[in-house]
Amino acid sequence: MVSILIAGILFLSFIVIAFFIPKGWCVKQTAFIHTSVEQMYDFLLCVKNWPKWQSDNEEEIAFLYVGPEKGEGSAQYWEINGVAASLRLIQCEYLRNINYQMRINHGETRLDYKLELLRAENSVTLIWSCEGISNNNPLDRYASLIYGWRVKKEMKKALVKLKEVYHAQEKIKQSA
């Protein structure tokens, strides 16, 4: 009887604590890239460049590109292990920021991203943020803590790769 009471109290505590976990979450990462704001903005404005620095899968992913080549409305669609996903640029402010939205599993999960470019001396400070909203379900609230942590970790890895890819492409352009 005592063990049932303790289990009940623990379960109830688990549920109550979940409602104190914020429904919305936001993660940010920052990178300093030695280039001009104009060059970095132009590179990021083309979603066909994104798999070069965001994908860490060893397998080749088939992307479908829809909309304009660059800027607002350009989008890419893909599928990994039966899970469909899409990325669409929704708002671009010239040389300042690029807002985009990612939808996973036919919109079941929606993430709002922002790439903000700040001019610095001979470089760009790139601030990349992601916002998500969890459901009211207590398990989803706990899962959002883990998901936010994973997204931040993936963003950090992608920014390191962005620096490498971008600088490699710039060297190729300069030698041509």
From TrEMBL:
<dbReference type="InterPro" id="IPR023393">
    <property type="entry name" value="START-like_dom_sf"/>
</dbReference>
<protein>
    <recommendedName>
        <fullName>Polyketide cyclase</fullName>
    </recommendedName>
</protein>
